[in-house]
Amino acid sequence: MSTLSLPSGRYQPSAFDALITRAQRAFVRSVQGLWAQLSNPPSSFGPEPRNAQELLEYAWRIEASQPSYAADLRGAALRHLGDQDLQNR
């Protein structure tokens, strides 16, 4: 049976290990910051719509950059307006 003898005292990482650790922490912080920005982008299309008419206007504003999403929004707003018309009869 063999024995492994370890030096007593505190482990001191090498300068290279310390550099790698600092680089990893900086990378993680930058990725977290990027993720935070992408998950909460500032709205460049104005305030959030609160009713069907505002939703239609919002759909027209985003038509150029997101045509498929705008079509979905218009469909939902028109369907809602149609449901309201049926309820008022």
Please tell me about this protein's structure.
The termini are far apart. It is rod-shaped, with a radius of gyration of 29 Å. The longest helix has 25 residues, at 15-39. The chain has helices spanning 15-39, 52-62, 67-88. It has 3 helices and no strands. With 89 residues, it is mainly α. It is 65% helix and 0% strand.
What attributes characterize this protein structure?
mainly alpha, single chain, 89 residues, 65% helix
Helix/strand layout:
Blueprint: H1 15-39, H2 52-62, H3 67-88
Helix pairs in contact: 2-3
Number of helices: 3
Helix/strand-derived class?
mainly alpha
Overall pLDDT: 82
Compressed to H and E, one letter per element, the order equals HHH
End-to-end Cα distance, whole Å, is: 93 Å
In percent terms, what proportion of residues is strand?
under 5%
Helix share bin: 55-70%
What is the general shape? rod-shaped
The main β sheet shows up as: none
- Secondary structure: number of strands: 0
Q: Rg to the nearest angstrom?
A: 29 Å
**Low-pLDDT stretches:** none
Give a summary of the structure in a few sentences:
By secondary structure, the protein is mainly α. Helices cover 65% and strands 0% of the residues.
